[in-house]
Write a structure and sequence with these properties.
Chain B: This is Class II glutamine amidotransferase. The complex is a heterodimer. By secondary structure, chain A is α/β, with parallel strands linked by helices. Chain A has two helices and eleven strands, in the order βαβββββββββαβ. The chains are: A alpha/beta, B alpha+beta.
Chain lengths: 232, 302
């Protein structure tokens, strides 16, 4: 079972996911191709084994959600919640992604070559996200751990109520959210950024870490301040 | 939830396919809205002075057996008009020369259970409870021709599942709107509009948005100006698709809570809540596909 092909015109998402969940033996690391996704939801969600999945076309909601170990390539655009709650592995979207990409991901790497919609990396819990284009408003909202690299611009309220996740932005930031601030890039930031761009693929090698800004939490929301009058 | 679709065919010879191309789009949104479905479709304007009114008989005791011809004769005799009527199941289109207001008033008075769906010289409106597939086949929506349309599949959250609360909503002439989302200040908008003498047919939140926009247009705003005002006046979640005699407009709330995808080719502009309703369209592989930005206005003209 080296190369396995599915066609969503002939086989349902449920059947394909059932195969991906139960029929792949550990250590075999097969390559699976899925044709004609046509925006269906939940394609390749809940994988928990080392394998390579290539989806040829646009996917709907929650593609590769909860991913563990697998490497999923979407040759098209992704709907809401791609790689949401990913635990490990790699999810690569060649096109653009809709809202809440990589939401609450605990681990793994999500790469979006195009733009990401609003709330990219919301509540991120340790995963890494690299976006080749721009991200929409409220990205990295309440992100707790992990890194988000934005090679384009960021929308309004970036990093609102950030915890310990770090955001790197190359382009323009429309506005920062409450408690998010621009900080100086350290040597560690340069190394982390270089490593993430390398992992994202050769097309990211044109970006230089020195062109990015570091956004992190000012931590003033960590403790309740009755005198702040809701202004942070 | 709810699903919305919009389709504008750019090339005149292809406009015979409007209904046919729309059907899989609307049925594709069944999971988002299984309880009711509807469509506002715009075709070539009637000759000057003529008007048409889309009517619904599903709330009368006779239902689909409603005596439309009898109603037409009655209207002709008492109003001194010479009307024609074309009907299918619960739906009929009454066409006549003259001011539509006295005709609508007369229908309200003499046939209060007949629901007026739309008025204008280029709009026809269909809506009913039931699955999108059932509504499509009941009214043979696949056979419709025209330049552009907006469609809706409903999963009711803000008001009851009844035919008159299904979308699209209309106000004035040749204007309709479909909505995915929920408004949080519809009653404030209603009270404000009611003070201007505007009447509401239902308790549905979308009707408030529809009547607000049409009121602004009647007050002299362009569609763009009216939409701009709606961003400050309307609070809540929305993706709206708006149809006028020659325009199709799309807006999303500032938080982009409700989805939308646009696919554009040389032949058409197609909009749906999700890509799965666009995947079947001809030449979709080469379409320019994008997600409309929140609080931006997208207006296409025929």
């Amino acid at each position: 079972m080296e190369n396995i092909k599915f066609d969503l015109k002939a086989t349902s998402v449920r059947e394909i996911n059932k195969f991906l969940h139960h029929e792949i033996a550990d250590g075999t690391a097969p390559k699976i191709t899925i044709e004609n996704p046509d925006g269906a939801h939940n394609i390749a969600a809940g994988l928990n084994v080392n394998c390579e999945v290539e989806i040829r076309g646009h996917v709907g909601y929650y593609a590769a959600g909860m991913n563990q170990h697998a490497s999923v390539l979407v040759n098209g655009n992704a709907g809401t919640g791609v790689a949401e709650n990913m635990m490990s592995g790699r999810v690569h979207v060649r096109g653009s992604a809709s809202n809440s990409a990589g939401a609450s991901a605990h681990g793994g790497l999500l790469i979006i070559d195009g733009d990401a919609g609003l709330r990219c990396g919301i509540s991120l819990k340790g995963g890494d996200i690299v976006v080749g284009g721009s991200v929409g408003s409220f990205s990295a909202f309440m992100a707790q751990a992990g890194r988000i690299v934005i090679c384009g611009n960021a929308g309004a309220a970036l990093g609102d109520s950030l915890y310990e996740a770090v955001v790197y932005v190359k382009g323009h930031i429309k506005s920062l959210g409450a408690d998010a601030r621009v900080e100086d890039m350290t040597v560690d930031d340069h190394q982390a950024l270089e490593s993430l761009l390398n992992q994202a693929g050769t097309s990211y090698s044109t970006h230089r870490p020195s062109d990015f800004k570091r956004i992190a939490s000012a931590r003033s929301l960590y403790h309740w301040n009755a005198d702040a009058n809701q202004e942070y | 939830m709810c699903g919305i679709v919009g389709l504008l065919i750019k090339k005149e010879p292809l406009r015979v396919h409007l209904g046919e191309w729309m059907v899989p789009m609307l049925i594709g949104m069944t999971e988002r809205g299984p309880d009711s479905a509807g469509l506002g479709i715009f075709s070539k304007s009637l000759p000057v002075g003529r008007r048409k009114i889309s009517l619904y008989s599903g709330l009368t005791t006779a239902g689909a057996d409603f005596n439309w011809t009898g109603m037409r004769h009655h209207a002709d005799e008492t109003l001194g008009i010479s009307s024609t009527i074309q009907h299918c199941d619960n739906h009929a289109i009454l066409t006549f020369v003259g001011n539509p207001e006295p005709v609508k008033h007369w229908i309200h008075e003499h046939y209060p259970a007949v629901h007026i769906l739309s008025t204008g010289s280029s709009i026809d409106l269909f809506k009913d409870v039931g699955s999108p597939a059932a509504v499509v086949s009941r009214y043979r929506l696949g056979l419709l021709q025209g330049s552009h349309l907006v469609g809706h599949t409903r999963m009711a959250t803000e008001s009851a599942v009844t035919p008159d609360r299904a979308h699209p909503f209309t106000a004035g002439e040749d204007f309709c709107l479909v909505h995915n989302g929920s408004l949080s200040n519809p009653y404030g908008i209603r009270r404000m509009l009611e003070s201007h003498g505007i009447h509401f047919d239902t308790d549905n939140d979308t009707e408030a948005a529809c009547r607000f926009l049409e009121w602004r247009l009647r007050e002299g705003d362009t569609l763009e100006e009216a939409i701009q005002k709606s961003f400050t006046e309307l609070d809540g979640f929305f993706t709206f698709l708006i149809g006028t005699a020659n325009q199709l407009a799309l807006i999303r709330d500032p938080f982009a809570c409700k989805p939308a995808v646009v696919a554009e080719t040389d032949d058409y502009v197609a909009i749906a809540s999700e890509f799965r309703s666009l995947a079947h369209l001809a030449d979709i592989q080469n379409a320019h596909i994008f997600e409309p930005a929140p609080e931006e206005m997208y207006v296409w003209r025929i």
